[in-house]
Amino acid sequence: MTVLMGQMMNMPLTVSSLIRHAARHAGDVEIVSRRCEGDIHRSNWAEVHERARQLAQALEALAVRPGERVATLAWNGHRHVEIYYGVSGSGRICHTINPRLFPEQIEWIANDAEDAVLMGHRGEMPASTSVPDLLCFDDLLARHDGRYDWPELDEQTAATLCYTSGTTGNPKGALYSHRSIVLHSYGAALPDAMNCSTRDVILPIVPMFHVNAWGLPYTAAMTGAKLVMPGPFLDGASLYDLFESEKVTFSAGVPTVWLGLLNHMKANGLKFSTFKRTVIGGSACPPAMMKSLQQDYGIEVIHAWGMTELSPLGTLSKLQSKHEGLPAERKQRLLQSQGRVIFGIDMAIIDDEGRSLPWDGTSAGNLVVRGPWVISSYFKSKDSPLVSVDGEPGWFPTGDVAAIDADGFMFITDRSKDVIKSGGEWISSIELENIAIAHPSVHEAAVIACRHPKWDERPLLVVVPKPGATVSREELLRFFDGKIAKWQIPDDVAIVAELPHTATGKLQKLRLREQFRDHVLPTAG
Ligand code: ADP
User: Fold this and answer.
1) Measured between alpha carbons, how far is 335 from 324 in angstroms, rounded to an integer?
2) Which end of the chain is more exposed for a tag (fewer CB within 10 A), N or C?
3) Is 421 a catalytic residue?
């Protein structure tokens, strides 16, 4: 059979095409940054394009070769956006590192990535330094005229590198391509995803070192939206001030950042005047937070699920028209789910033998995904992490446990390493934590599996009480009565002063399990 090929142009999907488009079609649309220097800096897409090209020239002059890694240790700001485009656009790889990691972790990641250059934030250049070859970013750019043509790159070329936060072991590098970034941007901008347009003013609270700020610096360029960058100032008062002064319409971030903002607003009786919708993800959005944003502030909350290995967007929770007539609490339950896939992402749930499970809303299994912005292997690793579904290879195992309903709404019930396997049945640690956290004296709660001679594993609840509050083991266990099946209620409670967290603020269950490795359950006798 002869194959008839399409007769369309083969234009590579590249990061430079995004910034060229933004500069040409939304050149005067602003990029506003609250900088480490303390000032508010105003730039626009045309200027970012100009400075990104100056940076490309500077990297040329510094003899940084194509494919070499240029690392950043930086907050959200215009210079970081310039680096995104200047580094990737010129064929080098932008490697974002989280400045909040411990120095040993930064050292480990920078060595693993073999970074050639490191770019970091400082208020001012130090008068003297022990750092070899230290250069000032702005001076470096000023030496070049910006007359630079972006190279024609193969769209499969690597563009950026980001390490997983390592909640489940050593950090691993996800190496994104130009093509995957552009396709992810198209997907992210769709109405049932982030719904971004040139009329939007986007404030990414999610840091640019956390999976490319969920792609927002690219999606904003693609749609010609205004960007407002908060720098390191993520406290409630600073954020509220920026939301109002820059007329922000859309934002995105992990649940914890909203706590500070909402507390500040409640304490001062404040309201938003332009802010309309937000994407919350990275960990499950607590129902109470979603309700408060919706009901007290009129904000549309879009719950999203994703991960570093997915660039990061996979699913987002938006209702279909057939759900309009549903009672409020059923709608809320769907909005509280991790949502439905964006076109481009394909998902399945499988049992431990790789057989796919039905989408009935209750069968829970290991969540696997595939798509053009899902990794096929980790940086520098030859081993494929991929698995088969019903004998068909090529699926990425997310490490999450989920159920999917008939409409494709996905509900994360746990991480596969965190689920408690009690006598062949699975107990969701997240479900138990959500119940515990609703107790008025509980500040933070974690549920982990504890060895049990009869049931293999049984749940142990670890609780940090609210400051000044006391709560007993018996009272906490009683609190589960009627809220969950009796056999799922934890066997024991440990009250602690604090729980271990990663630098991105996620609970470190691995460490918690080590801490309670020798814990003997009262039911184990
Ligand atoms: P790491 O895997 O190192 O913690 P990521 O930022 O890639 O770093 O985290 C991805 C994980 O975060 C997912 O696999 C999932 O367990 C969790 N996650 C992300 N979004 C959500 C969400 N909306 N609800 C529940 N869990 C989520």
Assistant:
1) 12
2) N
3) yes
DSSP string, 448-504: EEEEETTTEEEEEEEEEEPTT----HHHHHHTTTTTS-GGGS-SEEEE-S---B-TT
Neighbouring CB atoms inside 10 A of 16's CB total 25
439 close to 479: Cβ distance less than 8 angstroms: yes
384: left (phi over 0), alpha (psi -120 to 50) or beta: beta
**Is residue 206 a contact partner of residue 196, using CB atoms and an 8 Å limit?**
no
- In tens, the pLDDT along 442-463 reads 999 999 999 998 888 999 999 9
Q: How many whole angstroms from 1 Cα to the centroid of ligand 1? A: 46
H or E segment to which residue 57 belongs: helix 45-61
Give me the catalytic one of 421, 466, 487, 523. Answer: 421
Residues 61-98 have pLDDT tens digits of 999 999 999 999 999 999 999 999 999 999 999 999 99
Residues 6 or more apart in contact with residue 50 via CB below 8 angstroms: 23, 146
Contact indicator for 320, 339 with CB cutoff of 8 Å: no
Ligand 1 centroid vs 281 CA: distance in angstroms? 8
Kindly provide the b/e burial profile for residues 271-306, where b requires at least 16 CB atoms within 10 angstroms of the residue's own CB: ebeebebbbbbbbbbbeebbebbeeebebebbbbbb
| CA 220 to ligand 1 centroid distance, Å | 23
